[in-house]
Design a protein that fits this description.
The chain has 751 residues and is mainly alpha-helical. The protein is 31% helix and 6% strand.
Length: 751
Amino acid sequence: MKYIQSTKVVLGLALTSALALSSCSDDFLKKKQNFNTQTSEIYNYYSAANARISDLYQACNPNIQATRTYQFPSMGNEDEHSQTTEEYTGFSPFVDPQKTLNTISGNAQCPDYFTYAYQRMRNVNDCIEGILAGSLSQEEKDELLGQAYFLRAWCYYYLVRYYGGVPIVDKVQDPVAGSVTPRSSAKACIEFICDDLDKAAAMLRKKTVESRWSTTDYGKVTTAAALALKGRVLNLWASPLFNRDNDAQRWADAYAFQKEALATIDASGFGLAYEGNPGANGRGWAQAFLDLADNKEGLYVTRYNTHLPDQTPDYQRNSLWEQHVRPANTLAGGKEPAASIVDLFPMSDGKRPNSYDGYSKLEASSIPYDAANPYLDRDPRFYRTFAFPGVYWRFQGDPNTGTGETANPYKGDEYILWNYVWYNDPTKYDDPQSGDRWGADNLLGNTKGIYIRKGSDDLDVNATPHYIFNTSGKAIGFRCNQNSTFEIRYAEVLLNLAEAACMTGNMPEAVGQLQRIRARAGYTAENGYGLQSNLSGDQQACMAAILYERQIEFAYEGKRAEDMRRWLLYDGGTGFGAIGAKTLTGWGGNTLTWLGFKSLIGTRRERLEFRLKDQYNYTDGTSGRQWPIKGATPAEREGDNPDPILKKEMTRAERDAYAVDLSENAKKKQPLAEQLAHLKEFYDKYLVRKTKKGDSYDSNNTQLVMTWQPRYYFFGLTQANQDANPTLPQTVGWEDSKSGGSSGAFDPLAE
């Protein structure tokens, strides 16, 4: 067995130590092993071969902790993909008006997603070859190979959605002269991926359909996962990005497969978690992200643990999502959404806000949208996706203990987010670029105007959180967290089927899937689940409704950027002819017009905050900058509190009486609508919504807007890629380093 790193064939990587990273269970892998020194004999022993599979999960599984989007997909962080959407501000390289990506070495080089994918696939191929040649029983081989084929398909899917046709390498190659593989057509790649997924589904059927993985093995892939990923792949192949002529057969194939596969997925124990039990204020939907083992919602998940580096067993795999989204006064950080996504979530009647014209074919709500009070009358998922000033957001722990400074005035199980701000200079009150403001409850300079709450381990939802809250030591805050992340959820299975159903003219069936998604969120049949009445007869409106639903249901799960790419929602697909690529003839030649979607190109995304009204701010330029709390008693802290509201207007208890409690066991027994109306009284008297700088300005302090180039729909190969494999032709529209920088000639869609 040879493990030789090679850039010559764009393959190869010395294997990492095998870690139990697809499961938080110590039983998934008892100890670390280094496979660099092993021979093919390990594949004759189930325990060793199984550990080898665990190593593949470490190398291939999506990882929310990854900072390298080229190695792992977008999963909700503010990465270069999510920053091309309504979810975050900040120009990614793809929409930056001051940067034009190229494939020649330089500062603006197109990201390289190519090399590392093949390094991972070399390991997968080695594993497949070793197991096939080994002496395990056929049942054991099927169990292991099914997982390996799935992971290889996953790696190729990740490549093909960005590059189109890529080299298909299904065997371990030695790095010798002439050992290179040309690019295959996109069609051949899709067929290869689907073939691997068919193998995985068949091989894992006995283990995961006729029976189940053990609880300790939850997180390993299943027949259902293979079928779900294949459904996603077939929809990608049928989408405008790949299907420029809108070939109806592709949609028919996608629909037929997914309709049949759903029965097997259901029979495997998967389903829409908490369907029929939505709970109060979207509680069931929020709970679906928090069940660790045997979570029926999660078809393809990455699992984590709460271990520290010096623990035994000594592998550490923590999810930092909770640490990233919780506010700074809980010993965490805080993630901030763009104002645009806050403003586009549906109203409580399920319709788009009347101020949002992103989907003109969808009916606007009859409920007026109050941007100054954006929490009023919203979709139940709004309250579980965002946190705003004056809402309970409880957790387990007390940040006011330990070696650090006091973090906030509340224990975790009493925590209320009050993140309004005040200024001390009147010239800054309405300056969108000013950071000279101070946040309530010791947030001070580390305040977000709105917080992302999606996927948070809310104590009101989960009474036994999956983190260890630390106030001192190596992992302060929520860092020791084992909540899973979801790459494929059952909700996506339903919405993928809805998409294929819609595009084959089966709109009533598509609407049925939308109704299931909406019912789990808390809508009812009495108002038609908040869906407009013409969706069953209007294909364009139905497809727009599906994309809008995906935008809400999957917010901050890394799905929006891919939906925008595959549906060509940046320019509608009108620019392909200019770069010599296959033009769009389906969908009337413009998906934006067909869907009624308003492009983000030429727009900005800003942030927002809630500041005190002018009369409540400081004007002396100094007051309110410090809250000297270290070592002080609670009474001393309150007496020195710089918050103008608590200093001049009311006590903390009086302010907290305005707070909104989403819990089913809330201290307040008022319906949510009444609580929100009460909070509005506080906002109306004391707060004003302020626009804060989101996307960047140029050197002249002029606001910049998003841009996009048609060639970005498919990436080019970097100069390093072409140098490593001279046989690789460049993607059309990108600079070919082998031809003096002239445009590439490889059409990703050619068959």
